[in-house]
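Figure S4 source data
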Amino acid sequence: MSLASVILGFPELEVERVDRNNAIAVYAKPRQRPCCLYCQHPRIRIKATYQRTLKHTRQGNQLMTLYLTTPKYHCPRCGRYFRHRFKGIRPLFRASEAFRLEMFESHDGGVTQPKIRRTHLISEATTERWYQGQCRQRLSEMPNRPCPKVLGLDEHFFTRKRGYDTTLVDLRRNKIFDVFLGRSEASLDAYLRQLPDKDNVRLIVTDLSETYRNIARQPTLKGA
């Protein structure tokens, strides 16, 4: 196990070379072959290889890019094909989970989307999509959350295809409570009627959006 692979956070990789110019380029490959993904046969063969390119964290002011030699395997026992799976990297994604988490924590800590675009070389729309996805994942891991007493409603652009979402914020704790895809009055009214413990809400804070102001005036949140 090389020190470079440990620093990367991928001890199962073998680092072949590192190029440093305006950015850091790391070329690596799997250290060993896995067992068959389907039948656990230990002796599989490499059918082909291709290269995956992924963004992976930053060192100082330099962005690190991984160039991973990725084998495609064939199992002689079950006859199935599969590609190498890397821990901490999702299939088809172009950034490691560490990079996505770094972006989320930066944005959650107050770094603006334009600044993240300059430092991490990802678009503002991608930043918003990743941020909202991470929020939904964390919220799904927090069952039985009480509805906040001071509820903030705001809209954010999600994607061109799916439009805007509504972000619900617990303003007393300065934490995101939920993210709802959509901003129409009808869809929000149906969502809020099914919101658990909505009677806890005592105050709704919005911007000048007429939709949110109408929602706040209606008895959908009975406690507000």
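Figure S5 source data
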Amino acid sequence: MNRRRRLLGILLATALGSLLAPCPLLAQTTPSERELQIYAGLHAAAANGDVAEIETLIAAGEKPDLQDSNSRTPLHVAAFRRQYAAAQALLRLGANPNAMDAQHYDIVTIAAVQNDLEMLKIALAGGGSARNVTSQYDGTALIASAHLGHVEVVRTLIEAKAPLDHVNNLGWTALIEAVVLGNGDKNHIDVVEALVKAGADVDIKDRQGNTALAYAKQRGYADMVKIIEPASGRKT
């Protein structure tokens, strides 16, 4: 019976991995070409990176956190569009760095998913929190970036005190996602190493009763096993 449960756990994790691998990208809804064409005011200025127009509009009374039909603020638009100077101007002039769009994404998580280290640093410097619970999975920017193997983003979020052991509504931590939803490549190995060195709890079990170490062994990720195994049991 236990063997059968373990097998079912492996099959479920594999199925979920293939289903969810693109989800952080697909769940984030970037402004469409149609939206970019009809944007006006601060949304248009943010999309175009027009800092002078941003300053003029806010000085004239336009609210920096005005939302579009998808609850994106101009700051969200700047983050999606990689408009760094516009994002800095909006933050300087009072934009909320932790505002959420309709998919429950903030600019920290948007930058993390896009592997946009420069925008991430701007967001964090401007008051964005690495501790926000974001996305339809009740996850964090750290979980999303660990899933995608964005090594420098993961390291930056760790430095920003992102919660290492947050469990999303799939029952997974950043460490488990790096194993289950990664492919065992160098980037995901480096993510696992960064998380373990930072003190992530390697003994947390998911809903199938599996730890990151168990998944790494099941998948034959020997390099990950070498990193995780010595840390097992250290928090007990």
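The first helix runs from residue 2 to 20. The radius of gyration is 19 Å.
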